[in-house]
Structures are given as C-alpha cells and as structure tokens.
Amino acid sequence: MLKPDTIVDATLAEAESVGWPELRLFDVAARMKVPLADVRLHYRDLDAVADAWLARGERAMLEAGDEPGFADLPPRERIARAMLAFLGALAGHRKVSGQIFRAKLYFGHPHHNLALLFWVSRTVQWWREAAQLRGDDRRRRVEEIGLSALFVATLVYWTADDSEGQERTRRFLDKRLNDADALMRRLFPAKPKSSPPQPRSDRSKRS
Description:
Helix content: 55-70%
Order of helices and strands: HHHHHHHHHH
Oligomer: single chain
Strand content: under 5%
Number of helices: 10
Low-confidence stretches: none
C-alpha cells in the first residue's frame, strides 16, 4: 500500500534531479511506478506535498522538547535546540527546501503567499511550545514578533549555507539569540528580590 511518506520521499528525490520549479507529479508517480491517481489519494497538489515535507521539520522541533533534561536548559538554549532540530530534519534536501520557500513566495501565487504567512505564524507558535517559553501576555507578543523575524532570517540564511553541518547557520543563530537576549533584558528587566523581614531585636520585644 502506498504510504504518504513514500510519496514525499520520492518527490524530494525527483526534485533533487530536476529542481522544484520543473517538478511534475506525473514524473513522481512514474518514479514510484504507481498510477498518478494513487498520489492524488494522499495529496491534493504539489504544494500539499511540500507542506508534508515541512511538517517533518515541525515534528522534529517538537520532539526536541522531549529529550531528557531539555526543560532544565536556559530558555535561549531551548530555543536554539528546537530551531536546529527543525533545520536538521530538512538538511538532507536543503537546496530543494529553499526552492520550496521561494515558490511559496512567488508573486503570482497569492494563495501560496498567504499560506506561507500562516505557516510561519503557526510554526513560530509551535516553536515557542517546543522551547517551553513562559511569560505574561505582553512578553508573549514581543517574543512572537521577534521569533517570527528570527525564524525567517534563519531559514533564508540556512538555504544558502553549504558549510559542514551548517556551522555558519549555527553561528548566525547564536549571534541573533545573543542580541535578542540583550534586548529582552532591557524590555523586561528582572525584578529585584525583596529582602526577607529582619527579626525583631530583644529591645523591641520588651517594649
């Protein structure tokens, strides 16, 4: 029985050969030696296959939060690990992933443009969940804006990064998180700890 993940894998493999812009699902079906109608049973179009591929990154991001000791890490480290897990899941087809993002941004496809905006917003929400971030409503809104900008910037940088293990992307993310930490400390300074009440002196007790 044809499985959805098999279709995704075959689609990405075909895209590595011809490029995402030139990809056609009938060629994917031919690669798998199955009727095109069987592909349609699982995916309505090529963009749906792309969404399924990106969902693997989201799943890896969430699974990173299940690692032992993850919750004990500082928030900055949890954010970084979740993002790197997302990128790591897509790293096997980094070039094609970049082509997918560019296709979704194509000016002539407004339905794809809107879908990409919603996807970024939804993925950032799950990123916050994966990183187990807490805070009041004001802090949450600021974090969402900052993380959305960081998510997009990191994706753009990553798609062009051919360094070993995407090391340049790791350094890029680390620097941006350092900057974000400094900004958040200015916006939300730590409240000073109140001093414990002092014990009454013997004289005050006798008076």
